[in-house]
């Protein structure tokens, strides 16, 4: 596959796969959902937190489960009106197992993930969320660099 | 009523994830690969989400009850502790290996890809492991 590369300050932008408008619009919908959930239900739309709460039980479990149910049903609703977007995996089952474990453990210790810290927390200018977001972004970039460019060849 | 609004918010969230490209692990890895052919799309996802959520979040922060009368439950913790940093770094490693974070993983669970089932089961196991470790710590 040929990739149309244009170098800008040392970073080569992948213009072929860059989807500014759908990404911006999708992001706006994510922001809208987070806004609805906090204004109507008084809760933060952080997926790892919601999953943890549903697993552990406790107050507000039913409405948290309903949010997750909505998330689960989203592709079915999407499928009624449009062709499913491309979903492509690049790793095998062992990597998926390790990655899943790290994501589960890490998001619980770190009290949040891309949605809770990255979207909701950064929107609230929470120092904890800003730090967490910098942390998982940095280690995400570092991990891909190591796997693709140091070991991947 | 609040269960219905929660379901609706979850649906909108999931549609947003699918539209944005966040639900495609390949695209996420393309964003995390700064040294390769970099796909900046996910920066725009964050921008769009934060742009829409910022004002409502600020408004929510000033209220003690939601518009439907629920108590406003916003995080109150402020310490920048090692758990927050260590946990986030661990999460980022997992994110970088597979290109999946919790939201998209749940959103594509029923999309017919076995990989998402493996990932979600491992993720739930990681969360249960956390709970077990915490319980031991508390003894």
Automatic annotation (TrEMBL), chain A:
Keywords: Cell inner membrane, Cell membrane, Membrane, Transmembrane, Transmembrane helix, Transport
Transmembrane residue ranges: 28-55, 67-87, 93-110, 130-151
Source domain of life: Bacteria
One Pfam assignment: DUF846
This protein's GO CC annotations: plasma membrane
Chief localization: membrane
Keyword DNA-binding assigned: no
Subcellular location per the Swiss-Prot or TrEMBL entry: Cell inner membrane
Membrane topology listed for this record: Multi-pass membrane protein
Presence of the UniProt keyword Membrane in the record: yes
Similarity section: Belongs to the TsuA/YedE (TC 9.B.102) family.
Protein's name according to its UniProt entry: YeeE/YedE
Source organism of this protein record: Pseudomonas taeanensis MS-3
From TrEMBL, chain B:
Alphabetized UniProt keyword annotations: Membrane, Transmembrane, Transmembrane helix
InterPro entries: DUF6691
TM annotation in the entry: 41-61, 82-110, 116-133
Superkingdom as given in the UniProt entry: Bacteria
Name of the protein this chain belongs to: Membrane protein
Taxonomic source organism: Pseudomonas taeanensis MS-3
